[in-house]
Amino acid sequence: MLARLDGGLETLDEYVEHTWAPVYAAALEPKTRELYAGLYDNHVSPWLGRYQLRQLTPEVIGRWQANRLAAGAPVESTRKALTLLGGILQRALEAGRIPTNPQRLVRKAAPARTEEVRPLAPATVEAICSVLRPRDAMVVHLLAYAGLRPQELRALRWAHAGERTLTVHAPKTRRHRAQPRSVRLLAPLAHDLREWRLLSGRPDDDAPVIRAEKVAKGGSGEWTEPGYEQWINHVWMPALERVGLSYQRPYDLRHSFASLLLHEGRSVIYVSRQLGHSAAVCMRTYGHVIEELDEAPRNSAEDAITAARRGDDVRRLFGRSG
C-alpha cells in the first residue's frame, strides 16, 4: 500500500510507515533507527498517530507535549520525541504534503532541573524491589548497588561478573568510549547475581546478565534502548506508584551506590572511580552529602543493605521465604 499524496489527508502513522520509515529512516545508522522507533512507538504514535498530517497544528502538538509531561513521562524522552516529530514533519513539508512544519512553533519543554541529589536508602530500594519480578528486581539492584549507567547495565555480560568486582566495558556516550573500569561487587549484590543466574538457566559467559524480554530467533538477547524505555514506562513507574514514591529516573539509582560508599567514609577519588566520572563531578554532585556525613559514624555498605533486607517483610526477593 502506497502513501497517498493528497495534501496531508494521510495520517501520521500512515506517512511514517509507508514513506518516512522506508525512505528516510532507512538511511540512518541502525542504533539511531532503533532509538527513533522506540521514541515514536512509545511517545508519539499512541497519541498523534491517527491525526491526519494537516490536523497536526501547533496547538495539537503543544497539548500532546503538555499531557505527556502531566502523565509523568520523562522530560528528556518527551523532548527527544518532539524533536523526532519535527524531523518527520519537516520531510513531509519538503515533499509538499503540508504547507508548514507546525512543530517549529511549539516551544520545547525546559530540561529537567538539576536538583540536589537525595539518594534512595537501601530500605527504599528494597521496598521497590519487593513489588517487582526477579528480572526487574535484578535491574534495580544493579543500578542501585553497583552504580551502573543504564547503557552499562544493558551491555553487562556474565563474563564481566567476578567474585569481587564487575568489569564495566560500555561506552559512556556514543562519541567517546570510556576505558573499562572495575566496580566493587558488594556481597548482597553478588548473592543476587548468583541467584539470578540459576533462575536464568545458567547462561553462558557471553550472554547478557539482563536479557531482552523478547528475543528473536538467533538474536543476541541484548536489551535495547527502546526496550529499556518501555521498561521505565511499564515497570519502573508503576512500581514507584505502588510503593507511594514520586517519579525519579532509574538513572538516579547511581546516587544510592555513591551514598553507600560515602557512608563508609570512602574518598571522593574512590567514589568517582567506582562511578566512572571525574572527582570534580563527584564533588559537584555529592558535596552536600559529604558535608552531612562529616561527623556521622561510618557504616558498611554491605551491612546497610543486609539490614534493609532483614527488615523487609513484604516479599522475599526471588520468591524465597527465609
How would you portray this structure in words?
The protein folds into 2 domains: 12-105, Orthogonal Bundle (DNA polymerase, domain 1); 122-319, Intergrase catalytic core (hpI Integrase, Chain A). The model is unreliable at 1-5, 172-176 and 312-322 (pLDDT under 50). The longest helix has 20 residues, at 75-94. Helix 5 (122-129) packs antiparallel against helix 6, helix 6 crosses helix 10 and helix 10 packs antiparallel against helix 11. The chain has helices spanning 12-24, 30-48, 58-70, 75-94, 122-129, 134-146, 150-155, 187-199, 225-242, 254-263, 268-275, 279-292, 301-310, and strands spanning 165-168, 181-184. It has 13 helices and 2 strands; from the N terminus they run αααααααββαααααα. By secondary structure, the chain is an all-alpha fold. The chain has a two-stranded antiparallel sheet with strand order 1-2.
Rounded to the nearest angstrom, the distance between the terminal CA atoms is 59 Å
Would you identify the regions where 5 or more consecutive residues have pLDDT less than 50? 1-5, 172-176, 312-322
Largest sheet: 2 strands, antiparallel
How many distinct domains? 2
CATH homologous superfamily placement of the largest domain: Intergrase catalytic core
Provide mean pLDDT, rounded.
86
CATH fold title of the largest domain: hpI Integrase, Chain A
Number of strands: 2
What's the architecture of the largest domain in CATH terms? Orthogonal Bundle
Cα-atom Rg, whole angstroms?
Answer: 22 Å
Strand order within the widest sheet?
1-2
- CATH class of the largest domain reads Mainly Alpha
Alpha-beta classification:
mainly alpha
What share of residues are in beta strands? under 5%
Shape: globular
Q: Provide the helix percentage.
A: 40-55%
Order of helices and strands: HHHHHHHEEHHHHHH
* Helix segment tally: 13
